[in-house]
Design a protein that fits this description.
2 copies of one chain form a homodimer. Chain A has 2 domains: about 1-265, Spore Coat Polysaccharide Biosynthesis Protein SpsA, Chain A, CATH 3.90.550.10; about 270-350, no CATH class. Chain A is an alpha/beta fold and about 350 residues long. In chain A, helix 3 (about 85-100) crosses helix 6 (about 200-210), helix 3 crosses helix 7 (about 215-225) and helix 6 crosses helix 7 (about 215-225). Chain A has helices at about 35-40, 60-65, 85-100, 115-130, 180-190, 200-210, 215-225, 230-240, 245-250, 270-275, 335-345; strands at about 1-5, 50-55, 75-80, 105-110, 115, 135-140, 150-160, 170-175, 190-200, 255-260, 265, 285, 290-295, 300-305, 310, 315-320, 325-330. The first copy, chain A, has a 5-stranded mixed barrel with strand order 6-9-7-8-10. Chain A is built from 11 helices and 17 strands. Chains A and B meet through strand 13, strand 15, strand 16, strand 17 and helix 11 of A and strand 13, strand 15, strand 16, strand 17 and helix 11 of B. Strand 15 of chain A pairs parallel with strand 17 (about 325-330) of chain B, so a sheet runs across the interface.
């Protein structure tokens, strides 16, 4: 099995820590390693030194090399121009086919957190078996609350055959639901969160491109013919449709499987999610730095430079300090950090983007 | 008239901006000059270059020299050890008597803000006239709200005689009152805030020491006898009682006057008071630095290093950022910043004091 880690995201919800030049996957959000480094470290002992590949845009190549100095050149898959995930997956599939022929490939986002690593390895094992039998395999994260922020997977019939863990054919994918629907999903016990991690063989996914995204498939074939012509590659890739792998293939394909699991998974989608990754004091204060407080509770504080934080009479805040910005945000409004970034884009000053 | 600026305070309520080594009077809280520099600048054109004197402890001598390089050595009055204001006033009176004989002296805290400078000068003029007639003169700041944080002056009979402004004999001083009492004071129109600024002649105040603080008076006489013996001076001053000028003299003296005035005076007693000194945006946000906000209001932000602040969905906060600390404080609890400083004193780390 080969691992393609997708490190091309440009999220803005971790501003001011994440910047255009250094998005979330390259940051140390919790713990001592960056999220990309964590993602790679989590694969040992499954992955040998040559089994891990990182997919990203040109602007992040230096960051990837800095953070993963052990990576050889051929382990870096560079998107010529930013497109959505379907072209990105196609490029990775071609790259791996040229090196290894028809292997099982796992697509893993570089910016998720997984607490139960042993279970993660177990699921990968079962997924590889299903992939070899022609399935497109998803992780079915068991929901712990009626989230309106994740897409859901509705399971269908169990899949028979010898495997370490039970698995199910996927009945359908559901977009981020309204709260009432999310509650029904949770109550039914038949719905899972879609984590955006996928496992399949190179040939299975190429066949899906041929069937469901013929335009992209032709571009991929052309790319494969002139693999070393970088100018042509950029021109071809620029014509690829901006479509996600979920929309382009997963929702249309027939043989899609899901493996229920817990994983203690967290997509670390915003500052609030970081709370779950940090230890809290008895007053519910989570911090990556030293703090003193008086009459405060349920806050998250993050200092990029290790400053002392002092909290007096405040609750339910996220406070983030970086070398040039201080963010103070009501915890229930962390998604609105995007609005600040939007305003900086529109009105400047752009140096803070 | 000579001006003795008292710059010996060690307030903790402006932590983390104010530190043990650099208290409030040496900081730029609002505007472009430090509070001490503002206090001196406010005296021109009343004061000639040799008319201003600064009283402070040894630990602040270098700061005073840095901030007021035009000051000659004789204009620095150094308290040998920290005592309360009565000994400090006595030392300043002796110092001025030795240089100028029996002059009018104004005692001015180094860390107050005064908006209406022309009115301030006018009151000083009237105060000097009263001082020359033997009065101990106070500023009677007209209260604008029922403050429980200031002491009050109850006025008595008007004082006759030609003066620029009306003045009154003081009936009595009242300590910081409970809210209901403060409301009655405000409604009566006969009470003023005691600003801690005083004007009198050297001989008048020395006579008051003789009458009401004979122990301190003896020490002052001994100091005067051996003025240049610094070792003796320290030994003598160490024996001075730790008593405020208000308690030691003002509350006991008979011929005390007050001059009603507005001044737009602010003792800048805590972070909340700083708000009144800064311009606010339409959402009630006062800042000494650039900020962006989304759904926030009524906050005060202060950055020692000019960082960008971003506020999302928060209200009624004070946020202060210094090179090593970030303070986030509910606006109604700014007085509790003292508790943080107390905790740092008790438990450390002391580097933040």
């Amino acid at each position: 099995m080969k691992f393609a880690i997708m490190a091309g995201g440009q999220g803005t919800r971790f501003w001011p820590l994440s910047r255009e030049t250094r998005p979330k996957q390259f940051l140390t959000i919790a713990g001592s390693r960056t999220m990309l480094q964590e993602t790679v470290a989590r694969l040992s002992p499954l992955a040998g030194s040559g089994d891990v590949f990182v997919v990203c845009g040109r602007q992040y190549v230096d960051l990837v090399r800095d953070q993963l100095p052990e990576l050889k050149s051929e382990q870096l898959i560079v998107e010529p121009v930013p497109r959505n995930t379907a072209p990105c997956v196609g490029l990775a599939a071609l790259h791996l086919r040229r090196l290894f022929g028809n292997v099982v490939m796992a697509l893993l986002p570089a910016d998720h957190s997984i607490g139960r690593v042993a279970e993660f390895h177990e699921v990968l094992g079962t997924a590889a078996q299903l992939a070899e039998r022609g399935w497109l395999v998803t992780f079915g994260i068991e929901p712990t609350f009626p989230s309106t922020g994740y897409g859901y997977i509705h399971r269908g019939e169990p899949i028979a055959g010898e495997k370490e863990r039970p698995s199910f054919a996927v009945e359908r994918f559901a977009e981020k639901p309204p709260l009432e629907t999310a509650r029904q999903f949770l109550a039914s016990g038949e719905y899972y969160w879609n984590s955006g991690m996928f496992i399949w063989t190179v040939e299975t996914v190429m066949e899906q491109f041929r069937r469901h995204m013929p335009e992209l498939y032709e571009i991929l074939l052309a790319l494969d013919r002139d693999w070393d012509d970088f100018e042509k590659r950029e021109a071809l890739f620029s014509r690829a449709p901006r479509v996600s792998i979920d929309f382009g293939i997963m929702e249309k394909a027939e043989k899609v499987a899901t493996i229920p699991c817990k994983l203690d998974w967290n997509d670390v989608g915003n500052w609030r999610a970081v709370e779950d990754l940090l230890c809290k004091d008895p007053a519910g204060i989570a911090a990556n730095t030293q703090f003193v407080q008086h009459g405060s509770r349920d806050c998250l504080v993050h200092s990029a430079s290790g400053k002392l934080f002092a909290l007096v009479g405040v609750k339910n805040l996220v406070v983030v300090e970086t070398p040039d910005v201080v963010l103070v945000c009501e915890k229930d409004q962390v998604e609105d950090v995007k609005q600040i970034v939007e305003e900086l884009r529109r009105k400047g000053p752009r140096e803070y983007l």
